[in-house]
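Write out a sequence, fold above all:
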Amino acid sequence: MKQPRSPLKQTIDEQRVRMWYSWLRWCSGEPTAYALERRLLPEGFAHTVDGALSHRNRMLHYRDGKHVPRPNLVERAEILYPGGRALLEHPYWEILDPNQDVSACADAWLMRLAPDVQRIIFRPRRSAIEVRARRNTLTTAPLQPLEKLGTFDALAATALLMREALRADDARNARYCAMSFWRLLLVISSLHPFCNLLPAIAELADKALLHQVVYRDEQVSIGSIAILNYEAILNRYCPSESEDSASKLKFASWVNARLSLIRGEKHIDLLLAFHLPVVATPALQANPQRHAHFLHMQRARETAFNYCSSGLWQHQSFKDYKSGDAPPILSST
C-alpha cells in the first residue's frame, strides 16, 4: 500500500508543481490556465450537446499545486517548452525533504546541478588515477562564488551545504549558509517567472530547513517576514532583471550589482536593512543583557529598513534619520 505523504512533503510537491506551471505559463505566453490547457491538451476539449466547449480544468489544479502531473503530460510539455521538467524534478526539492539521507545522496544531488555549480563545489582531480572529483565539506569557501551565480541551482547547492552543517552540529557554518541562502533568495526574487512564487518558496525553505539554524541563540526566521518588501527596496537602488538582459554577461553584472547592495558594501543602512531575519530563542530572552543588545540591533535594522523603503534616502542621510522617531515597520517576532 502506498504510504501517505507527510504534510511537509505535500507542501514540497505543491511548490514544485506551481513552479513547473509558472514556467509553462511564462514560456508559452498564454494568459490563463484555460489557454494553456488548450495548447497542451487539445484532445481534452469536447463539445457538449448544446454546443458548449467543455474541458477538465486540469491546469487549474497544477496552478494551485494540487496534483503532481503525470509523466506523459510532463513529457508533452517538455517538448513544447523545454526546461519545465528540470524544475519539477530539481534536486532542490529532495534536499529540502528531511526524510532524504543527505550523507548518502549529497554527491548524486550535486552531479545533477549545473556545471558551473559543480566546478565551485568539487575539487579538480590532480591525476588521471583519481576517477571522481573530490570536495571539502563543512567549509564556507563555496558560498560567495555560489552567490555570484544567482541561480536556482546555486540556491540548491547552498541548501545542501546547510543540511551538511546542521547534520554535523556546526552552527557557525550553518549560519553562514543561511546568510548566503537569504541573499540568493533576494536575487532570484526578480527572475521570471518565479517572482510571484517567492513568498511561498521562502516559507517552505524556512519550514523545512532554515528554522533549524540557531547560532548564538538567534534563530533564523525568514518565513515570518514579507520578503517582497525587500524586493521593493532592491528595485529602488537596482532595476529588476528584465527579458532584454538575457545574455550571461549582463546577467552576471546584474547579480553582482544586487549582491553589492544586499551585502551593504555601499551603505550601512543597506547592510542593516538586508540583515538575515532572526528571532531571539528562549535562551537568549533569558539573558537580560544579551537580549537587550539583540533588541537594540533589531530596532536599528527596523529603522534602516524603514529608511531604505521610503523616499527619505534621496533627501536625508541615514545618520540624521536615525536620530528621529521612525516607527518600525518590520516586526522582529
Q: What stands out?
A: Residues 1-30+58-89 form one domain. The chain is about 55% helix and 5% strand. The longest helix spans residues 7-28.
